[in-house]
Automatic annotation (TrEMBL):
InterPro entries: HK97-gp10_tail. This is HK97 gp10 family phage protein. It comes from Ammoniphilus oxalaticus.
Length: 132
């Protein structure tokens, strides 16, 4: 049983091409997940004036081989809507307003669907480069 040296060279070239393509694919998927999360958290945000919903932002940070997707809102009352807050009348607590957990629920959903998105994108690149 033998092999052709030219086949090994072709395989090496395809592996290098895949390495570059996989990096680009990971960037695309990270940005796609960030956009999806942003859209989801905005839809789940309750609207009074629209200020809270319109001030959601996202960033994608790459540290080594790890992608960190940051979804944030700098509106001063965002954390109270997210986690809940007490009701105060005349200096006394009279109740509790439950949080909406729009960010927490969005994060949980993204953690559930993200691995499948990564896998599909990488498989697509593998099929493109290696065939089948």
């Amino acid at each position: 049983m033998g092999f052709e040296y030219s086949e090994v060279v072709k395989l090496k070239e395809k592996m290098l091409e895949f390495r570059i393509a996989a990096g680009k694919a990971q960037d695309r998927v990270a940005n796609r997940i960030a956009q999806l999360a942003l859209r989801k958290v905005k839809l789940m945000t309750p609207v009074d004036t629209g200020n809270l919903r319109n001030t959601w932002k996202s960033d994608v940070v790459k540290k080594g081989d790890t992608y960190i997707i940051v979804i944030y809102n700098q509106t001063e009352y965002a954390s109270f809507v997210e986690k809940g807050h007490r009701k105060v009348v005349a200096g006394k607590t009279v109740g509790w307003v439950e949080g909406k957990f729009m960010l927490k629920l969005t994060e949980e959903e993204m953690q559930r669907i993200a691995p499948n998105m990564w896998e599909k994108e990488i498989e697509k690149e593998m099929r493109r480069i290696f065939g089948n």
